[in-house]
């Protein structure tokens, strides 16, 4: 077992320093005055915070090599993050698979691995996770740089501060102290977060959310999830639950949801809901979401109607987000996008009908993000924990 003493402390001791580093990570290379403008901090504060980060090798000065001047430390030199300075591991857990990536400090994927899950028993899942992390730690040795943290992304109600999975429907877990258990088995500092929130961090830093202060990520597939960024912060809620548009009830007489309520978006538009409804409507015992999708693509009117209804539910869910928070953009992603041609029109129409006033101006985009991107999001949460001085 590896000891956590292998990891080192990040030399940023103030929230401002973490903010500066994150700004350079998303937007760099940037000059100190550009950093000051973006963070609204003083030039003196930026210079003071940047110095130890350069000394410790986390930031590099983009010196003009051709000029060959002793220009180091000149405020006009842009600074950028040295991605090779540290490595991180991100793991996304689904109901039937673990997806793991080894990333650098800029969250670029260096190695990706998948292993199937045959059981949901927490001990067995933890053993598979530890073995996968060990494989990536061995890969990391080849880079000659330490792995500084492990991020694990799980769907459901996850308390990041406590490191506990309160409830994960697909894994059928309740109150599993995952961060503590994974830290014991891997020897790494562990951050556990809701999977959609983790994906939202990656989108905020590197994806379609860069530069936006208010946006949402809506994921469709096994569940219907939503990550929210408000005033530049990923929202976790007072109790670790926020943005649960999957459980916005849109039809009180609708199908029963696993949460105990009726007519939730998830009870109409999640994969299992679609499969169940397609079986009921068409009488064809489709095996899974892929088979249901095939049937609809073959033109079966009953199956197509089920997707149309799912699209309507998703569109109304997105309109609820737009009406409450007025995001600039909503990014729709998730494995359910495979059916997008079957429900895009209904999503658009239902959104337009239910969004109030200027909220309808929100830019709704689709963005296919494979599970490696979700695992990358988990690595981003580990980077976030590493560079933050104030929390977790
Ligand atoms: Zn529900």
**Low-confidence parts lasting 5 or more residues at pLDDT below 50?**
1-5
Overall geometry: globular
- Count of distinct strands: 15
Please tell me the overall pLDDT. 91
Q: Main beta sheet: strand number and arrangement?
A: 5 strands, mixed
Structural class: alpha/beta
**What is Rg?**
22 Å
Count the domains: 3
What's the CATH architecture of the largest domain?
2-Layer Sandwich
Give, in order, the helices and strands: HHHEEEEEHEEEEHEHEEEHHHHEHEH
Terminal residue distance: 23 Å
- Under CATH, the topology of the largest domain is which? Nucleotidyltransferase, domain 5
- The percent range for strand residues is 15-25%
Strand order of the largest sheet: 5-4-3-6-10
Helix percent reads 40-55%
Total number of helices:
12
Hetero groups in this structure are: zinc ion
Walk me through what this model shows.
This protein has 392 residues and is α/β, with parallel strands linked by helices. It folds into 3 domains: 4-81, Winged helix-like DNA-binding domain superfamily/Winged helix DNA-binding domain (Arc Repressor Mutant, subunit A); 86-202 and 373-387, 2-Layer Sandwich (Nucleotidyltransferase, domain 5), CATH 3.30.420; 210-366, Nucleotidyltransferase, domain 5 (2-Layer Sandwich), CATH 3.30.420.40. 40% of the residues lie in helices and 20% in strands. It contains 12 helices and 15 strands. It has helices at residues 15-27, 32-39, 43-55, 122-141, 178-186, 195-206, 265-269, 271-282, 289-297, 301-325, 340-354, 371-387, and strands spanning 59-61, 79-81, 87-93, 97-104, 109-116, 147-154, 157-159, 164-168, 173-176, 190-194, 215-220, 224-230, 233-234, 329-333, 363-366. The chain has a 5-stranded mixed sheet with strand order 5-4-3-6-10. α1 crosses α2, α1 packs across α3 and α9 (289-297) packs across α10.
């Amino acid at each position: 077992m590896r000891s956590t003493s292998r990891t080192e402390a990040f030399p940023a001791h103030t929230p401002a320093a973490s903010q500066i580093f994150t700004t350079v990570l998303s937007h760099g290379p940037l000059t100190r005055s550009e950093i000051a403008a973006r963070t609204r901090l003083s030039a003196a504060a930026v210079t003071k915070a940047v110095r130890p980060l350069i000394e410790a090798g986390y930031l590099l000065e983009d010196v003009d090599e051709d000029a060959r001047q002793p220009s180091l430390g000149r405020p006009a030199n842009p600074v950028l993050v040295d991605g090779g300075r540290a490595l991180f591991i991100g793991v996304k857990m689904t109901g039937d698979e673990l997806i793991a990536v080894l990333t650098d400090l800029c969250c670029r994927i260096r190695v990706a691995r998948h292993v199937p899950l045959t059981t949901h028993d927490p001990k067995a899942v933890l053993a598979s996770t530890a073995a996968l992390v060990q494989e990536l730690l061995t890969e990391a040795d080849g880079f000659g740089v330490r792995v500084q943290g492990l991020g694990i992304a799980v769907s459901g109600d996850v308390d990041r501060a406590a490191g506990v999975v309160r409830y994960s429907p697909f894994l059928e877990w309740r109150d599993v102290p995952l961060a503590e258990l994974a830290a014991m088995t891997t020897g790494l500092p562990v951050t556990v977060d809701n999977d959609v929130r983790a994906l939202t961090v990656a989108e905020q830093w590197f994806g379609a959310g860069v530069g936006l202060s208010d946006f949402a990520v809506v994921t469709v597939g096994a569940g219907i999830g939503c990550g929210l960024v408000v005033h530049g912060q990923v929202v976790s809620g007072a109790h670790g639950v926020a943005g649960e548009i999957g459980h916005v009830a849109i039809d009180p007489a609708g199908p029963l949801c696993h949460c105990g309520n009726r007519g939730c978006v998830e009870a109409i538009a999640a994969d299992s809901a679609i499969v169940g409804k397609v079986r009921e409507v068409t009488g064809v015992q489709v095996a899974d979401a892929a088979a249901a999708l095939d049937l609809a693509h073959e033109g079966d009117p009953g199956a197509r109607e089920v997707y149309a209804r799912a699209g309507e539910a998703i569109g109304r869910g997105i309109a609820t987000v737009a009406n409450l928070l007025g995001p600039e953009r909503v990014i729709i992603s998730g494995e359910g996008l495979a059916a997008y041609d079957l429900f895009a029109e209904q999503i658009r129409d239902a959104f337009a009908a239910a969004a109030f006033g200027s909220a309808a101006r929100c830019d709704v985009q689709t963005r296919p993000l494979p599970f490696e991107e979700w695992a990358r999001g988990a690595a981003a949460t580990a980077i976030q924990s590493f560079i933050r001085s104030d929390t977790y």
